[in-house]
Amino acid sequence: xxxxxxxxxxxxxxxxxxxxxxxxxxxxxxxxxxxxxxxxxxxxxxxxxxxxxxxxxxxxxxxxxxxxxxxxxxxxxxxxxxxxxxxxxxxxxxxxxxxxxxxxxxxxxxxxxx
Length: 114
Hints:
The chain is mostly helical. It has a two-stranded antiparallel ribbon with strand order 1-2. A hairpin with a 5-residue loop joins strand 1 and strand 2.
């Protein structure tokens, strides 16, 4: 059921937004999803593309994102065993949903000084 434009969101909608923000607001989630969107598939590729993340933290975040249905882990039986990670359709949809937020930030938030 779609509400008319300008109608304030109800409590259920607000709670869903908060749950989504709880996922994307966790440290390293954005950079890991961005690395996957840019082609990272193997653990070492993620490590190289996500500056500053430790191996244990990357392992933990990949497992969490997999449990949330955003990253798909595939084990390729070979010698040695190969493991790849890829975005799920849900993660691709999430990234697309975040694009307007990114554009808003570009218009309204000053750049951070590095």
